[in-house]
Amino acid sequence: MQTSLENTSEYQIIEFTWPKGYQSDGLHAGLRKVKNDMGWIYSTTPAKAAGTYTTNQFQAAPTTLTKNTINKNHTLQAIIMNSAVANSCTGKLGEKNALTTQKLVAEKLNINPDLVGVASTGLIGDQLPMDIITKGIEKLQLTDNTEVTNAVLTTDKHAKTISIQIDIDGKPVTISGFCKGSGMIHPMMATMLGFVTTDANIEDGLLQEILSSEVDSTFNQITVDGDTSTNDMVVTMANGQAENTELTKDSPDYPSFVSAFHEVLSTLAQDIAEDGEGSTKLVEVNVQNAATHDDGQKVAKAIVGSNLVKSAIFGEDANWGRIVAAIGQTDATVDIEHTSIWLNDLPLVVDSQAADFDEKEMKQALSNNKITILVDLNSGTSTGQAWGCDLTYNYVRINATYKS
């Protein structure tokens, strides 16, 4: 969760807040025993919208509904979301319940159902208890609270949020995002729910282009356990209430906006990786001198996704052979005689052979909460980056008893 202030030359990270024109609420409707389990986001005016969605063939009813809704006119005004019940693999009744949820929200807010997105997360296979959903929607209010960020959590240890402010055309523009994700994380696109709101005024179609591009380098480059879920999406809304001159690719402030948008997604992606079920360490892999960017991304993702690498990091074991094996399993171009690897800036492998490192010093480096692995493929000038976490006994415990 982002709580501190941070400045860069282009933007300022601020305490989490909604951009102009957004309201929300979150509450305990009764889907879970105690915790908040339902919430919504609302824009006082229709907002341009874009989304990316899970590639799992068993796409859940709310995910398909939201995708189709956004594709109609690329506009949303509200998103309703619930945890505990995924409404996935629930047949025609599940589709009907998602549509009913969309309609109930539209009626309460007095807007067209085509302006309402629906998101669910939780146990696959259970039908939504529509009596609870209906009563929960009746209780939801339009407030400035941020409880919706907690209402979507499942096995997450905490809410994941960030707000960034940037000056565009002399106007303060805010970009705020939150997400949930801890297990079943291997996005393509993306094993989690993510929501990004902004008051920026942006050209039609450009929001989708930015979102798709930035998701590829952030959410699609994280992994916890290699499993892609059925419900996952990232949705962004831009309501234009900052009243800046419409952003286009030719706008002087366009690169700064994209940079700030990337920071929002990158921060949230890393928060998910760090909060992986049962995890104790965040793992970042940076690849340099790859033949192509795709090669760099593949190698980085393969390393953070390797169960053997993840287990070694949990055990604080400098077993570099597992990293080399993960690299070699890809089809990336690799100089197999001149590949080098560093762990938290300590040389681990030089020219594809063990470096002369101090075991005690390396063990100390592996005790850190964040492990950074740098790989030099010596095959070009491109780079890659990915994030993951260690694999622990607690991950098995959590997932062995998830339903029961």
Automatic annotation (TrEMBL):
<comment type="pathway">
    <text>Amino-acid biosynthesis; L-arginine biosynthesis; L-ornithine and N-acetyl-L-glutamate from L-glutamate and N(2)-acetyl-L-ornithine (cyclic): step 1/1.</text>
</comment>
<comment type="subunit">
    <text>Heterotetramer of two alpha and two beta chains.</text>
</comment>
<feature type="site" description="Involved in the stabilization of negative charge on the oxyanion by the formation of the oxyanion hole">
    <location>
        <position position="121"/>
    </location>
</feature>
<comment type="pathway">
    <text>Amino-acid biosynthesis; L-arginine biosynthesis; N(2)-acetyl-L-ornithine from L-glutamate: step 1/4.</text>
</comment>
<feature type="binding site">
    <location>
        <position position="191"/>
    </location>
    <ligand>
        <name>substrate</name>
    </ligand>
</feature>
<dbReference type="Pfam" id="PF01960">
    <property type="entry name" value="ArgJ"/>
</dbReference>
<keyword id="KW-0028">Amino-acid biosynthesis</keyword>
<feature type="binding site">
    <location>
        <position position="180"/>
    </location>
    <ligand>
        <name>substrate</name>
    </ligand>
</feature>
<feature type="binding site">
    <location>
        <position position="277"/>
    </location>
    <ligand>
        <name>substrate</name>
    </ligand>
</feature>
<dbReference type="InterPro" id="IPR016117">
    <property type="entry name" value="ArgJ-like_dom_sf"/>
</dbReference>
<comment type="similarity">
    <text>Belongs to the ArgJ family.</text>
</comment>
<dbReference type="GO" id="GO:0005737">
    <property type="term" value="C:cytoplasm"/>
</dbReference>
<dbReference type="InterPro" id="IPR042195">
    <property type="entry name" value="ArgJ_beta_C"/>
</dbReference>
<feature type="binding site">
    <location>
        <position position="154"/>
    </location>
    <ligand>
        <name>substrate</name>
    </ligand>
</feature>
<comment type="function">
    <text>Catalyzes two activities which are involved in the cyclic version of arginine biosynthesis: the synthesis of N-acetylglutamate from glutamate and acetyl-CoA as the acetyl donor, and of ornithine by transacetylation between N(2)-acetylornithine and glutamate.</text>
</comment>
<keyword id="KW-0068">Autocatalytic cleavage</keyword>
<feature type="binding site">
    <location>
        <position position="399"/>
    </location>
    <ligand>
        <name>substrate</name>
    </ligand>
</feature>
<keyword id="KW-0511">Multifunctional enzyme</keyword>
<feature type="binding site">
    <location>
        <position position="404"/>
    </location>
    <ligand>
        <name>substrate</name>
    </ligand>
</feature>
<dbReference type="GO" id="GO:0006526">
    <property type="term" value="P:L-arginine biosynthetic process"/>
</dbReference>
<keyword id="KW-0055">Arginine biosynthesis</keyword>
<feature type="site" description="Involved in the stabilization of negative charge on the oxyanion by the formation of the oxyanion hole">
    <location>
        <position position="122"/>
    </location>
</feature>
<dbReference type="GO" id="GO:0004358">
    <property type="term" value="F:L-glutamate N-acetyltransferase activity, acting on acetyl-L-ornithine as donor"/>
</dbReference>
<keyword id="KW-0012">Acyltransferase</keyword>
<dbReference type="GO" id="GO:0006592">
    <property type="term" value="P:ornithine biosynthetic process"/>
</dbReference>
<feature type="site" description="Cleavage; by autolysis">
    <location>
        <begin position="190"/>
        <end position="191"/>
    </location>
</feature>
<dbReference type="InterPro" id="IPR002813">
    <property type="entry name" value="Arg_biosynth_ArgJ"/>
</dbReference>
<dbReference type="GO" id="GO:0004042">
    <property type="term" value="F:L-glutamate N-acetyltransferase activity"/>
</dbReference>
<keyword id="KW-0963">Cytoplasm</keyword>
<feature type="active site" description="Nucleophile">
    <location>
        <position position="191"/>
    </location>
</feature>
<protein>
    <recommendedName>
        <fullName>Arginine biosynthesis bifunctional protein ArgJ</fullName>
        <ecNumber>2.3.1.35</ecNumber>
        <ecNumber>2.3.1.1</ecNumber>
    </recommendedName>
</protein>
<keyword id="KW-0808">Transferase</keyword>
